[in-house]
Amino acid sequence: ASNIYAISHDNKGKADNLRSLAGLHLFRGEHAEAASFYTEALQIYTKSGDRMERAHAIFGLAEVRRAQAECGEATRLYSECLQVYTGIQFRRSRANSLFGLAGVHQYQGEYSEAETLYLEALEIFTDVGDSEGRSNALWSLGEVHRLRGEYSEATQRYSDALEIGTEIGDRQGRATALWGLAEVHMGRGEYDDAIKLSSEAKEIFTDIGDKYWRASALMSLAEFHRMQAHHSEAISYYEEALKDLEEIGDSRRAADALKNAAEIRKTLEEEVGGSTETAKVEEDPLLNLG
């Protein structure tokens, strides 16, 4: 399609088409392809002097760099967007940029900075009536509080996100909120509640075909069972998560699942070996003399 626009000399159409293709690749997790298309679109918008479309392309490229954990570049790009998104008509775009920039700070463990930016984004999303954006900001604030061990505040934020997700029929938003609440229960040592909520989240992720988050729920369930020495259940969940992670190409978390399952098997073997040696000592009358 981009070739058609090139032939007709419709540079704006070509750039728009490239940006749409970039968004599709970003959604699929194909970051190299997304970056290439966003960059090409950005060059066209820059040459034509289209300031707003250029900002939209920069935002897309910032999203790619954040996904690639290129924090310095992502911060620079989001900040450039914020310099453009100043008018009242661009408030939603400004909120999205603030949200993305907050995510970069969160990834780097800069929770105070992340919280400030999430709160600013939340205020804008609320003012413009963007329920999905508001839900995402609330969930992210829940994450910040949970990572700081502030479980009461995290519970409130996740619960608010859950309520919105339920109201607007956002099943993924509802499931991620359930997952967050499960993680809070885990942090408090409330494993039965954690397992119940994470299982509910897993079922939703399975229904909507979200393998990334389904794997996250499975990894959580494995960890909950592991912490209670439910070895067989933990191994089963790690193996199930491994299949999804390999399928979506998440090699880092796949390696974690494989490693964790292997460690549990080793623990089981050591326990069995120790029990066998103890039994031999108890059964040998010569070793029990005296």
How would you summarize what this structure contains?
The protein has 290 residues and is mainly alpha-helical. The protein is built from 14 helices and no strands. The N and C termini lie far apart (90 Å).
Describe the protein.
This protein has 290 residues and is mainly α. It is built from 14 helices and no strands. The longest helix has 33 residues, at 251-283. It is globular and about 90 Å long. The N and C termini lie far apart (90 Å).
Mean pLDDT: 91
Helix content: over 70%
DSSP summary: helix tally? 14
Question: Sheet with the most strands?
Answer: none
Oligomer: single chain
Count of distinct strands: 0
State the distance separating the first and last CA atoms.
Answer: 90 Å
Could you state the order of secondary-structure elements as H and E?
A: HHHHHHHHHHHHHH
Tell me the strand percentage band.
under 5%
Could you list the spans in which at least 5 consecutive residues all have pLDDT below 50? 4-8
Cα gyration radius (Å): 24 Å
Strand-pairing-aware structural class: mainly alpha
Coarse shape: globular
